[in-house]
Every structure is written in C-alpha cells, then in structure tokens.
Design goal:
Length: 376
C-alpha cells in the first residue's frame, strides 16, 4: 500500500471480521455481539471503527465508556441506526442537556444505571423532558458501589419495570476478575449471577437483554453468553485467553525520511549518553513518545524494517526517534519502519519482554490521537 504520510496506524478490516467470526463460533449458542469502542476504540479510532462495524453489520450494538464518546458518535453518525450503550455512569444533568440540545438521540442511545438513586433521577428527568429513555441496569454482585446489588434489584423489581418514562431494556454485570487465572472464582461469580437472572420474573426477563461475558470470559465460559456478549480486547486481536486464534488489527508504521552516517558522539536526543567514538548509521522517523507513549517508553524498544529487527540509537523525543541501522546498507529513505504488528514487534512479544500482564496489552495501542488511522 503506497503511503505519503510520515507515520500512521493501519487498521485491518478483514482482521476485525476474522476476530468476530472466532468470537461467535466460540459461543454456546447464537447471540448478539456488542463491540466495545471505549478509549478511542482501544486506540484504533472511534469514528472509523464505528463506521466499519455499522456499515458492514459486523456487530449488533456498540458500547462506549464516556458520555463524550457517545455524544461524539451521535454527531459523527447522525443517520446511523446502530444502538449505542454507554457503559460509564453519566451525570443526569449531562444526559438531559444532551437530549435537549439534540446532541443525543434517545432512540439509539442507551444509558447504564448504577444505583436506584440514579434510576429515580433519570426517571424524573425523562418525565420532565416528555421523552422515553432506555437503560441497562448494571449489577454489582459484590455490592461495592459499581452497580445495583442482587437483593436491591429484586426487591425493587416491580418498581423498575413499571416506570413510565424509563425503559429498562437490559441487565448486565462486569467481573473484574475475568482476566485472572482463577477460573473457579470466576465460575462462582457467574453462577451467582445466573441464579440472580433466574430469579427475575419471566414477564420481566423477556423484556431485557442480559450480558456479562467480556473478551476473556467469552473463551473460558461460553455457556454464560445469555442474550449478548461484549468484546473489546478480542475485537482488536489483543491477548485475552483466546489460544492465539485472534489476529491483531493494528499495525503502526512510519516512513524513514533520512538515513545517514553520524559520529557516535553526536547528540541524537535530549540527554545523549557518551559513546566511544566511531561512526553509526542512523535512520530517522517522525514519530515519538507523544504518539504512542507506552510502546515507546518501554525498555528494549525494537523496530522492524525490511523484515529485520533494529534498536533505538538513543532516547526517544516527543516527535521523532533514531534507529541504529549500522551495517544495514540496504535501509534507505522511504522504507517503512513497523513499530507494532510484525514478527518481533507483536503485542504479545512486547508484553513478554517488558513484563506487562496481558490484561494491560491494550495500552500499547493507545495513542494521543495524532496518528492518522488508515483502514485497510
């Protein structure tokens, strides 16, 4: 693919499709799939990934983490019919203002309810606005303030499903232990959630979409898929206990703009280390730690050029870095340097070299928004 840019992130659409096929094939039964687009779609580009998923009908719903992301997608995709679930707890006044000013479409925006207090506030606001607001109630099995506990929900069940302006169309939970290796702990929590769901009256159960499985749980406990699963990490091909079947969607690239032989004592960064003299062959690219902070601030940073791995010549600057290509006379200006997404610079390899637990592998894809996303 010909590129005129100095640095970019390639997002491979066919890998997105591949990963979703694997997720669906892993489930115990057919159910809806919700694509999680929080944190700028894990660095893959919020609007771009939304467009791909919606236009190609790859998922049944998308989820975001922040109110600002929900409002952004309402503006960017005004005619889109894809339902959007806000996983985070938004301020009631913020939601009301967004609806009044036309920033949010209540027909396709769904909000998470974390407490009965929030439920009542949203209900009063919906009544004042003469509109119907759709919500998913988040359940907290540990009663830690991250949702409505089992007993509270069941005691208020009639009240919850008889609201005039608040439509409860979903119930879900999130297991923070889902990426741990303690499968028995996760199984016990899932069994508790399952017992809770079975306690909901049948006439109410048929009104709601139930979901608890995230990317890690999809592969470990597919029998608990219920009506929908949420996939973020798995969608983008990051490590999530999938057995290596998923394909990494992102490839971060930069074009070499200069190659030259320099004296080893020449400063190449803010605080260059003293060297023993001699010459080094240096390749420069216009990409720095502000573009992909975690990736470029780890130890042992490697860059793949022409299928071979090279190392940094010095510390990274905000906007550029130098690669030591000494002895590689075939490396020339215009060659593409790959920092993520090739053999030797895959997410799993970087995590292993730097002692990063795979639950945090998505950090490597976070960018400051400066890298243009190219959807391949």
């Amino acid at each position: 693919m010909k590129q005129s840019k100095s640095a970019w992130a390639e997002i491979h659409v066919d890998y997105l499709e591949n990963n979703l096929r694997i997720v669906r094939s892993s489930l115990a039964k057919p159910c809806r799939v919700c694509g999680v687009l929080k944190a700028d779609a894990y660095g893959h580009g919020l609007a771009g990934v939304m467009r791909i998923l919606s236009d190609n009908h790859l998922v049944d719903m998308i989820a975001v983490g922040k109110f600002s992301e929900l409002a952004f997608l309402n503006r960017e995709r005004p005619g889109d019919s894809m339902e959007m679930l806000l996983l985070g707890a938004a301020d009631t006044g913020e939601i009301g203002e967004g609806i009044r000013e036309g920033q949010l479409d209540p027909a396709r925006s769904i909000f998470s309810v974390y407490s009965m207090r929030q439920f009542q506030e949203l209900e009063s606001m919906a009544e004042a606005l003469s509109t119907r607001i759709r919500v998913h109630i988040r359940i907290d099995g540990w009663n830690t303030g991250m949702g409505v506990c089992y007993e509270e929900f069941l005691s208020a069940e009639e009240r919850i499903f008889s609201s005039g302006n608040l439509e409860v169309c979903g119930v879900y939970s999130h297991l923070y232990t889902s990426y741990s290796e303690d499968l028995e702990l996760n199984r016990k929590q899932l069994q508790c959630f399952d017992a809770f769901i079975k306690s909901i009256r049948p006439e109410h159960r048929e009104l709601i979409t139930v979901h608890i499985l995230n990317s890690a749980l999809v592969f470990s406990f597919p029998e608990y898929c219920y009506d929908m699963v949420r996939v973020g990490t798995a969608l983008y091909g990051l490590a999530c206990g999938d057995g290596g079947r998923l394909r990494p969607v992102m490839r971060i690239c930069a074009k070499i703009f200069e190659v030259c032989d320099v004296d080893s004592s020449a400063p190449l960064s803010y605080e260059s280390a003293l060297s023993q003299g001699g010459k080094r062959r240096i390749a420069r690219i216009m990409l720095g730690y502000w573009d992909i902070p975690l990736l470029l601030t780890q130890k042992d940073v490697r860059i793949c050029i022409r299928g071979r791995l090279f190392y940094l010549a010095d510390d990274i600057c905000m906007d550029n870095l130098c690669i030591d290509v000494t002895g590689a006379e075939d490396i020339l200006p215009g060659d593409v340097a790959v920092l993520l997404g090739e053999e030797g610079v895959m997410v799993g390899e970087i995590c292993e070299r730097n002692g990063i637990h795979y639950v945090h592998s998505e950090w490597l894809c976070m960018t400051a928004g400066r890298l243009e996303k190219v959807y391949v």
